[in-house]
């Protein structure tokens, strides 16, 4: 069986996933990427509602409890509790995001974009790899910590942090790592603590680390830490 088939089966099966219309996760997001732009401790308690049909997210738990963020493939917005749009940003994937190394604070639209995108890819992998607009290629396994990890190269649509990503899976077919370039730097996202929610298996911990030019980990604080406390699929 091909790697993608194994991964889909290990996470609950593609048939089951295609009957899903959305999800809700309760999560915490932190890391150096936020402290470096003056927004540390911003998303310690956030609720994210995902629409799998429109590929959109709604995030609550931002600075103002009466506001929520909306992420769509071609738009980011901030709305109040009545639904009135307060700010919006069209085609964010075509605009280079503010470099976190600059020390300049991010605005709420940029926070919604990077957090929403991270959570979307964290929750929907590996099922998003089976979308008809995805291109995948299985690569030779790679040994890491005395464990052979199977690898899958993916070319995605624009609703991703980078169009090209490299996924690593363990012997059980579960995601363990995802690599891609962002802000001109290579980043490895390690996933663990897989849990089953509504027959869908997802990792609940993700820690992102910078990579050196030779692929080794850089000894520095995690770029991004993501923890899911609870999840529901419907």
Q: What does it look like?
A:
- The chain is mostly beta strands.
- The chain has four helices and 13 strands.
- The protein has helices spanning 3-10, 14-18, 32-35, 108-124, and strands at 22-30, 43-51, 56-60, 67-72, 75-80, 85-90, 135-144, 147-155, 164-169, 175-182, 185-197, 200-211, 224-233.
- Strand 5 and strand 6 (85-90) form a beta hairpin.
For this entry, give a set of tags.
mainly beta; outer membrane lipoprotein receptor (LolB), chain A; 234 residues; single chain; 47% strand; 13-stranded antiparallel sheet; globular
Give the arrangement of secondary structure elements:
Blueprint: H1 3-10, H2 14-18, E1 22-30, H3 32-35, E2 43-51, E3 56-60, E4 67-72, E5 75-80, E6 85-90, H4 108-124, E7 135-144, E8 147-155, E9 164-169, E10 175-182, E11 185-197, E12 200-211, E13 224-233
Antiparallel strand pairs: 1-2, 1-13, 2-3, 3-4, 4-5, 5-6, 7-8, 8-9, 9-10, 10-11, 11-12, 12-13
